């Protein structure tokens, strides 16, 4: 049987392991960096560049130390090197450490080759160093240790080298074969003993049996399966969440469309904000049953809204000068609070309200409308302002077109017929900006912040996750 068949038997047929010499695998990390080594025509490492990268003082010293520490008790070690120069370096360094090592290469004479092989089989010296000679077609049943000092991208080549030590013959004294792989640094593409079992090439193992290697591989495969399943579940959850967000957004837009359609109907019937006609002469807009807005043009707006106790509070937001930067509006400033009725909040009354001074800076509650008229020009806020009766501008008509709650032709027809005045469209724009659309924008911003937090939590979980790592 050739070495390739023996290794394939080892990897694919555990029931037939008793026909092989039991291997033990050790992967030793070396200082060799193969990043700059080019490929040859076969896709393996270029021999010349590989020899220059591997045949170094540090790498050779690591090999000798690995043999002394892990295999000095072995009787017959076969070392696979890259080229003749590498063989020579390993042999001389071995002898410098008192190890009887001999070399056999393609340059060795037939007579010396035959004699050296005979003495090695007889156990007269412990280490034979070679390159490209004993990878296949040679039976040396007494080998009990293989050192792989020749990095490769070829699965066939590494299995042939390992196969030299897997022959099992009786009466050789061989109990097992120790495979020592001098693993080099490379991000991908290198074939090592761990990769034969489906493990990471960077994994460092110490005298592991095939059973142990397969067990680790199965554990890592299960861990990968669980990770992939978790990622798939996460993707499914994210997809469902996205679908739910899309559904909620669609519902919100439908509600806003219905509200705007109702506004348009009221506008056409000239019944908009009838409640305010008897309360105020200013252009208040009803946003909902508990919120009312008075737009002050580009200068800001006034809000009247109920709190959790159903008291009306009045707040003001003012525009900031453009030269101050990107922030356009101030924070809401309380004007009045704790008002029991809407008409009192809008018109106010002339008697005293005992309100906290920090919320209500005025001693006497006076007209909200009066405060507005003292603060902003009348023509910006009055319902009877002449500009509100003028036909809506093209720019104003374009705004409803963008949100497309009605067909473009409907808006153009209404604009051409004079139904859409500047005041009416301004009220719709106020309703959109401060109503559902604003709520939708706030919810979307809140959801985006929530997604960021979830992403941070996921990254923390991934950093804290214990994965199956190297075995030293």
UniProtKB/TrEMBL annotation:
<dbReference type="GO" id="GO:0036121">
    <property type="term" value="F:double-stranded DNA helicase activity"/>
</dbReference>
<dbReference type="GO" id="GO:0070125">
    <property type="term" value="P:mitochondrial translational elongation"/>
</dbReference>
<dbReference type="GO" id="GO:0000403">
    <property type="term" value="F:Y-form DNA binding"/>
</dbReference>
<feature type="coiled-coil region">
    <location>
        <begin position="241"/>
        <end position="270"/>
    </location>
</feature>
<dbReference type="GO" id="GO:0005759">
    <property type="term" value="C:mitochondrial matrix"/>
</dbReference>
<dbReference type="GO" id="GO:0061749">
    <property type="term" value="F:forked DNA-dependent helicase activity"/>
</dbReference>
<dbReference type="InterPro" id="IPR001650">
    <property type="entry name" value="Helicase_C-like"/>
</dbReference>
<dbReference type="GO" id="GO:0032042">
    <property type="term" value="P:mitochondrial DNA metabolic process"/>
</dbReference>
<dbReference type="InterPro" id="IPR050742">
    <property type="entry name" value="Helicase_Restrict-Modif_Enz"/>
</dbReference>
<keyword id="KW-0175">Coiled coil</keyword>
<feature type="domain" description="Helicase C-terminal">
    <location>
        <begin position="63"/>
        <end position="217"/>
    </location>
</feature>
<dbReference type="Pfam" id="PF00271">
    <property type="entry name" value="Helicase_C"/>
</dbReference>
<dbReference type="InterPro" id="IPR027417">
    <property type="entry name" value="P-loop_NTPase"/>
</dbReference>
<protein>
    <recommendedName>
        <fullName>Helicase C-terminal domain-containing protein</fullName>
    </recommendedName>
</protein>
């Amino acid at each position: 049987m050739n070495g390739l068949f023996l290794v394939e038997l080892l990897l694919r047929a555990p029931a037939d392991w008793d026909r092989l010499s039991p291997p033990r695998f050790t992967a030793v990390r070396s200082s060799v960096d193969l990043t700059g080594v080019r490929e040859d025509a076969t896709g393996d490492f270029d021999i010349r560049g590989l020899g220059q990268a591997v045949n170094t003082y540090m790498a050779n010293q690591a090999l000798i130390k690995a043999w002394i520490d892990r295999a000095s008790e072995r009787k017959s070690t076969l070392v696979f090197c890259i080229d003749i120069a590498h063989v020579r370096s390993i042999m001389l360094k071995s002898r410098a450490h008192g190890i009887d090592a001999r070399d056999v290469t393609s340059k060795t004479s037939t007579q010396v080759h035959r004699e050296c092989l005979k003495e090695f089989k007889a156990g007269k010296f412990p280490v034979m160093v070679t390159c490209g000679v004993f990878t296949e077609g040679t039976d040396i049943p007494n080998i009990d240790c293989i050192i792989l000092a020749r990095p490769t991208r070829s699965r066939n080549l590494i299995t042939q080298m390992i196969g030299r030590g897997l022959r099992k013959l009786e009466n050789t004294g061989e109990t097992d074969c120790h495979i020592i792989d001098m693993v080099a640094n490379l991000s991908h593409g290198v074939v090592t003993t761990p990769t034969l079992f489906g493990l990471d090439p960077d994994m460092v193992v110490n005298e592991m049996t095939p059973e142990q290697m397969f067990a680790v591989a199965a554990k890592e495969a299960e861990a990968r399966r669980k990770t992939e399943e978790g990622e798939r579940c996460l993707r499914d959850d994210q997809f469902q969440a996205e679908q739910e967000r899309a559904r909620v957004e669609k519902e919100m837009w439908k509600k806003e469309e219905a509200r705007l359609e109702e506004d348009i109907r009221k506008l056409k019937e000239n019944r908009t904000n009838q409640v305010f006609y008897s309360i105020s002469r200013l252009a208040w807009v009803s946003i909902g049953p508990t919120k009312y807005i008075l737009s002050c043009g580009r200068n800001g707006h006034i809000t009247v809204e109920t709190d959790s106790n159903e008291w009306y509070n009045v707040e003001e937001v003012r525009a900031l000068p453009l030269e101050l930067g990107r922030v356009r509006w101030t924070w809401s400033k309380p004007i009045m609070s704790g008002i029991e009725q809407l008409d009192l909040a809008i018109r106010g009354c002339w008697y005293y309200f005992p309100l906290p001074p920090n919320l209500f800076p005025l001693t006497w509650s006076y007209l909200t409308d009066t405060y507005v008229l003292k603060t902003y020009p009348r023509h910006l806020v009055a319902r009877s302002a002449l500009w509100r009766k003028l036909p809506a501008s093209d720019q104003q008509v374009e705004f409803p077109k963008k949100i497309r709650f009605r067909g473009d032709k409907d808006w153009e027809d209404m604009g051409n017929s004079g139904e859409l005045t500047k005041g009416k469209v301004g009220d719709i724009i106020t309703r959109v900006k401060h109503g559902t659309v604003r709520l939708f924008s706030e919810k979307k911003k809140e959801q985006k912040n929530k997604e960021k937090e979830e992403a941070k939590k996921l990254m923390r979980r991934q950093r804290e996750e214990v994965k199956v790592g190297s075995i030293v």
